[in-house]
Amino acid sequence: MSTEDAYQKGLEVMEHLMGAAGRDGVVKWFDEFDPELAQMVVGHIFGTVWTRPGMDMRSRSLITMATLAALNRGPQLRVHIQGALNLGISEKEIVELLVHIGFYAGLPVMAEGLKAAREIFDERRQGTK
Questions:
Q1: Are 45 and 66 within one domain?
Q2: Cα 93 from Cα 62, distance rounded (Å)
Q3: What is the CATH number of the domain that holds 121?
Q4: How many whole angstroms separate alpha carbon 11 and alpha carbon 27?
């Protein structure tokens, strides 16, 4: 796949996960630092890694959330919780993922993840996100 094809595929994956506004916000944020960085992030992570054969997006989303929770990467976890919900992963599954990871990565990780999830669930119910 060419660099441009990977970038375009990455934009599609990001839109599927984050919606057009979320995708555009992430691209703009990286682009402000360095346009080549935006190309690399979008093209490589979302256009190549997220689209590799052998695993569906749902599984990749669950793995990404578990990794971000374990590393205590709150802002990125919030983005990927939103993405998981957009993919049809249920609130119950997200909570179970966070409880499960908490017993391997620690109670504070679980608590922070559950706090982020609760906020996102509430925002979506209220229609603010």
A1: no
A2: 9
A3: 1.20.1290.10
A4: 9
Structural domain span for residue 1: 1-53
The residue type at 59? S
Cα gap 16→35, rounded to integer Å? 22
Inform me whether the pLDDT recorded for 12 exceeds 70: yes
Q: What is the mean pLDDT of residues 77-86?
A: 95
What is the DSSP code string of the chain?
A: --HHHHHHHHHHHHHHHHHHHHHHHHHHHHHHH-HHHHHHIIIIIIIIITT-TTS-HHHHHHHHHHHHHHTT-HHHHHHHHHHHHHTT--HHHHHHHHHHHHHHH-HHHHHHHHHHHHHHHHHHHHT--
Amino acid at the residue 17: L
Q: How many domains does the chain have?
A: 2
pLDDT over threshold 80, residue 120? yes
The model carries a pTM of: 0.88
